Prior knowledge:
Aminoglycoside phosphotransferase domain-containing protein
Amino acid sequence: MTDQAHIETALRALLVARGAIDAHARWIAQAGGQSNMVWHLRGADDVVCKLYLNTAHNPLYANDPTAEFACLDALAGRGIAPTPIGFHLTELGAVLLYRYVAGQQWRADGAAVADLLGRIQSMPAPNGLRHLPVDGADILAQGDRMAPSAALSDLRPQARLLPSPDLVLVHTDVVPGNLILGADGLRLIDWQCPAIGDGVVDVASFLSPAMHLIYTGTDITHKTRQAFLDALPTGLAARYHALAPAYHWRMAAYCQWCAQQGRAGYAQAGQAEQDLLTSLQ
Length: 281
């Protein structure tokens, strides 16, 4: 029996004993997660079971189970995120249960993503979320701490200091794998790294060629990119254009860091991010 099978068996027993899940549900392991183990539990109700395994330091993305549960709870019924069912602390790790979102991974509608981000940024954020840096110098400093290569350091843009933005709820990991299109519209899943910060964070995340390559194997198209930007509020789009070099340079540094950790695909993804960065300079 594999380690994953052992964990699944133990976790099932724990949750059934607590009366948290259907004892007869069929557990289907889900692919695509970068940090945690996730199953689709098919039974009387369709449920997602998420076990947090890797909560070690990541230079860009947190993996906070309590923050994810708080966001799902705050956004419940808003047509934005999955509906939470329960949160459990176990000897195997923290476990989040939420309603399964049936649908397909997002593919092409940039305007729909812009609309979803607008609705998220209009929501009050739950208490206790981390705060992100909002000016260009601090964003670039985060990239510096990932020890970028000399070649990438040569591409480091000048810092831009803009007026402070309104601080809003941000997801921070708006990538194709976390956007699910179902019968009720677009939903954003995997809320383990939310924050309070500049709405541009989610704009830059969605427009990252590296993240599109990782999750779809291809870059975002010009048509989708333009439809997304055109559907953003004018002020948010202008702020993105001003800060895009800093955000994409930081993402290129992150991709180099991931490649150094042995994560597949990130060397190629980082090159795509550098290509975009070069076109912006």
